[in-house]
Amino acid sequence: MRKQEQKGKITALYERLSHDDGRSDESVSVENQKRILEDYARKNGFTNVRHFTDDGVRGTTFKRPGLDAMVDEIRAGNVATVIVKDQSRIGRDVVEVGLLKRTFDEYNVRFIAANDNLDTANGFDIMSIFRDVINEWYVADTSRKIKTVFKSRMEKGLRCSGAVPYGYLASKEEKGEWVIDEEAAAVVRRIFQMVMDGQSVNGIARTLRAEQIPIPSEHWKRIGCPVRANSYRDPYAWSATTLGYILKRPEYLGRKVLGKTVCENYKTKSTRRTMPEEQFVFEGAVPAIIDEETWHNVQRLRETKRRTPKRSNAPNRLTGLLYCADCGAKLTHHNSLVQGKYIDDAFTCSRYRAPMEDCTIHYVATQKLEAAILSAIQRISWYVRNNEQEFVQRVRKASSLRQEEAVKDCRKQIVQAKKRHAELDGLVKKLYEANATGKLPDKHFSRLLAEYDEEQAALEASMTEWQGLLDNWNADRVRMTEFIDLAKRYTDFSELTTPILNEFIEKIVVHEGNGRGKQRRQRLDFYFNFIGAFEVPADIVTPMEQEEERRQQEEQAEKEERSQVLAQVRYERYKQERREFTARKRAGLLTPEEQAEEERRLERNRAC
Predict the structure, then answer these.
(1) Nearest to 479 by CA among 506, 501, 450
(2) What gap in Å lies between CA 524 and CA 508, rounded to an integer?
(3) Which of 58, 315, 335, 554 places its Cα 20 to 30 Å from the Cα of 176?
(4) Structural Rg of the chain based on CA atoms
């Protein structure tokens, strides 16, 4: 009866070849597997054979076209026998292979592994289970060996991937090295500069698209390099994602960064991005496209989320740079557009009038703020150029003071953490004693012990971090040389441009103002890139300040002169009017109203 049921059904010959198999052993090629299975079927009387093949598919993957087609035929009741060269061809995952064999049993399909002498018609074979385990162990072991080889190469600074970032090309002379692609590098430099100019990423994308600058894939295609993504429709369709990826690449600084991703599971091939401490970084190993100052400034600018106000094309360039001196929150820009003009263009504390917050307004007008910023940059730039040695000494002194305060704070934190850690040790000891004597139930004991363990682990992590800060603190971290070079680059400027703003200013701390009108005074603390907070000595008067004072004096003199001229004109007009009035009075031509007013004037004079 069973033979009649199996009559006319398919004998499925399944072949699978992965890329790893193809490289390591030609004996398992698809053609060789087909020949072996056909010979086996013919010698053993199997007819109506049909091949199901998966070429270039891993054994840990069970979503395969050939395997899926065969399983569909099995579930349709069209397969009598499945024959494979060996068990590893069906798969290298114990669980998935077991489920597949169960499917064979459910549909009365005979399973044969020719080289392993496995035939389910002969009954259960316990060795097949061990072979499945060994097949999976082979994959796991191979994965471990590959990871070890890759790690060893990366520790030596050797690449394990052929991918080359936009802006570079693979060197034809030195394998694994990069050279600058000048055409693409010019676009990269422009993108970074556009961020420094205050443009948004979406705005940069629109500009590049309008100018028909080819996207990276199109650029590589045009110069004959391998293209990783061929599915694009528009060769000029720059996106915020592409630009964001370019703007955060450390390779443009000249760094070789290896091990940025790691395979988490050899079965699923899922990967994750590694933490910075897991990566292998080699400074100066590739030619730099972007200087360090520009790269760090761009990263700082991109960390600030800038909301574009309504009726505006772009956010204010000062957004993200201003902080409240009292609560530490960022200041928010606001304005009102009336008949095409901005009214009340200013910044205020973002926590002012916020629910559950208590802070004052910290109002500062944008125009006055930009004037103060320009003056501060001009002042420190002139001071650095003309008093370089004094500047260096002052910065080092300020840095040392800040370092001493930070070190003192770290040591204080470590002492407190050690004290609390010792207290927790005593509490844990008491917990065990209370639990052993029956005074503390197991439920409460487990909960409290877990809480204490968690707190101790957090304290240990914090102490390690603070100790690392103490061990690695360097008084020369302040990069005075970079700031001096920056100051020397701008020798004469009278306007606050966005690039100057972003290159000089790290942040500005705004204090609450005092007074009203012209008597209002407000303190601003400027933090400059590379050197932090710094104030030029009060007795220093720069030529720009002298020129500004001279201009203000001239304006005041002109104002006083105009006032005197106007006063003289008014006085002469008054005298003329009095002469005319006196002449009409003598002639008796005054109106009744004028006569009455004149009598009241005379009466007041007599009373005085």
Answers:
(1) 506
(2) 7
(3) 58
(4) 41
